[in-house]
Amino acid sequence: MRPGLLAAVLNYPSPTCAFRLSAGGINRGFVISGPMKLDKPTKRTMLVDSNTAAIEEPRKWLLSQLQQLDYGDDDVFAVHLAFQEAFYNAIRHGSEMNSKKKVKIECLIASDRIEILMTDTGGGFDPDVVPDCRIGENLYKTEGRGLLLMRSYMDIVEFNEIGNSVHMVRYRHESNSSSSHIQR
Hints:
Elements: H1 5-10, E1 19-23, E2 26-32, E3 42-49, H2 56-68, H3 73-94, E4 102-109, E5 113-119, H4 146-153, E6 156-159, E7 165-171
Antiparallel strand pairs: 1-2, 3-4, 4-5, 5-7, 6-7
Helix pairs in contact: 2-3, 3-4
């Protein structure tokens, strides 16, 4: 095998791949295929329009990455819900539903954690002064539960100083079931 070829193969960016190794151009019959757990995290940055339909591509990509790394159902549900809530908050409050404005989504998917950084172009807010949706008249409002859900399902939720960027982390929870192990 040519020097550097194995290194290039081992650094292949997709968690699932199939390829045939050969030495000197002669097929030696080594085959590696199927799901592979990569130590190197997958990173992706997306700039999307501030409208509800724009979440579809980033959502599909994120969920496919979690599936390829065999994250369990509880992790997938938690990340999916927090991701949607953060996005909807960004377009509703940050971009004020102006589809000409953009939301920046940065994801890092690793075998042990998922990190999402979502930034809108709005003026921000102070998350510490958002009323608790579980108390008093807030209990009956039809909105205001996004932060509670994000904080409940993610291990870390933190905002930048002006409040227009949220960083969320979910560590792999080994105790939950994986969709690949569920019999249907």
